[in-house]
Each structure stands twice: as structure tokens, then as C-alpha cells.
């Protein structure tokens, strides 16, 4: 039997036990009514390394091996809408779709259940399994849809628009994982364990990280600019990030720096002594662990040092949420991630009925039960599914 979502009382009891064992260094007592954890100090995860060429080759051919699920699993949101089949003979046709290597197994499970409802529909999900290759094949007209475990690359979007004169349709169909390496883990901002700061807003981070300041306000350059006093007041903030383009970098850019339809631009490494960009995500926590004045963004699967993971909010006065399992699973944590189904839908033309029903099924209670049964990715919450359904209805 799967267990219900982690509740805050459970978290506090568990963390108290872990603290006694030396696994958790600090945990502030939260306001239980607000479901807000201000400080979240976690035991470092096992260090992970880049996939080898042999592993990448295997993953493209077979899909990436599914990791061990989290011990605790969320129940389905009761507000998810049930899918109502049209009838076994209402849909037919053969379709070719692609998937990221981490979505090969889940996508096949979705397709299996969908085609049981519509036996005259055949959806091929063949290798190579790679989101980047699938996006290119979609542009070339070789695929009808692509299951991708991240936002599309800006270059893919540009190439698609250049060819068709409109953008690709990308609809969220699942949550990401909590902290599984390679499986679209949630992201966080980390600082040195000695740093007094506990929470930040996206408004503050935009003032710190960008040159565009789409959210307004004056630039932030020192820890004093973030309200720290004493010896911290005049200390410069050292930023550790990931060189564009990267899925982690693009996700943070879209959530934090992009605002009101305006794309945000990063401060430039090389010309700015406070900014250092790596080519990969693997060393971000290590940088901050060694630098008391550093801040970095990283995936939760890569927090392999005893650093402080900050609580985050969208705006300065909004409630801030720590990246606990419950906050990520309930999508209250603002850097929880999403899985997308991408397809070519021309404005003014009706969507292919099979693709439309496939999306409706996947984001429904039945489709999200498939996600929960796998136990790695997190099912959509009701409000997320409703937003995807509204996006589907509003397509021109």
C-alpha cells in the first residue's frame, strides 16, 4: 500500500530523530498553518557524476533505468478530473512519438493504457530516446508528439518558428521528480552553512542575477543589500551558476529572470568578477560549501555538501516554501518542475483528435495514477491539471 503525503508533523518528528543522529543540522520550527519551513538543512545526497558515453548510448536505445522511488508517495489530488472515453471505435490511426530517455518507461505506460481505451489507435514510441533529438524530429515532421522532461531549448523554439511561422505547443502533463538524479529533480538555491540568510524571493534573485531586472528594483551586489548586518554587510555575493544553454539554467531563467513576457538575461561571467559559470551542474554545492559568500542554484539531486538550502517565494511578501518533499509534491515550492508533451498545432486548424484525447487522458485522474504507480515523477495537482486542460481548450 502506498503511503500518504508527508505531513509537517511527520517531517518534524523525522527531522528531530535525524538531528539526534547527526543527519540534519538545523530545522526551524515552522508556522504549521502556513505550511512554511523557513530553514531547511538536509543531509548531503550521494555525489553523482555525469553519465558515461556508454550509459548515454544505452539510455537512448532502451530508456534510462528507473531509480528507486522515494519511500513516501503522494496520494492523487481528489480534484483531478476523471477521463471519460469517447468509445472504443471513435478514434483510429497510427502515430509516431518520441520521448526523453527518462520518460521512455512512463510514456509507454501512458500509451498502453490509452490504446486499451482506443484499440484502433497505434502509437509507436521507438528509440532513440532523447528529448533533444525528439524536438528536432518534431521540427522535421518525423514525429507527431514528443514527451520531454524539461522546457524546450530556445534554439528548438527558434528553429520551429522559422520553419512553421508559429511556435510549438507544449503542455505540462506531469510533475518532475523530487531529487532523483537525471529525472527532472526540483531545484534550489544554496548558500554556505554559516550564512545567516534563510529565504529569498524571485524578485530579489532577479535583482542579483540578471542585467535586465524585469521584476524591477535596484541591483543587489552585497549581502548587506539582502538585509544582512555586521561582518556580512559589505561582503560581495559570489554567484555560481551554469553556462547557457543548459536545462537547469533555462528553467531558472524562465521562472526567475523572465517576467511579464520579457526574457531575462544573466550577468556575464568573465567580465563580472562576482559571477562564475560552470558547464555542468555537478559542482555547484561544492563551490558554496567552500565559499562563505557564495550562492548557487542546483538540482536537489546534486546537494552533496552540508550547505543551506533556502526557502523561496515569488514576491518579497509572499509565503516562502522550502524544498521539502511535501512542498514539491504539492507544487507549493516555486522551483518544482514539470514534464511536457510537445506537438505541432497550427493556429486556426483543429488539433488532431487522437493527440487531443491523449493529452486529456494523461492529465486526468487515470493518467496521473499512472505517474503515481511508477513512483518516480510526481503527479500533477488538480490546479496544474486544470491549467493544462484550459491551455488545451484555448489553443487557437
From TrEMBL:
InterPro entries assigned: PBP_domain, Phosphate_ABC_transporter
Source superkingdom: Bacteria
Domain PBP span(s) in chain numbering: 98-365
Region Disordered, residue ranges: 50-69
One Pfam family hit: PBP_like_2
Signal peptide positions (record): 1-28
The entry's keywords: Signal
SUPFAM superfamilies tied to this protein: Periplasmic binding protein-like II
Any coiled-coil regions, as ranges: none
Protein name in the entry: Phosphate transport system substrate-binding protein
Source organism (scientific name): Kribbella aluminosa
Lineage, highest ranks first: Bacteria, Bacillati, Actinomycetota, Actinomycetes, Propionibacteriales
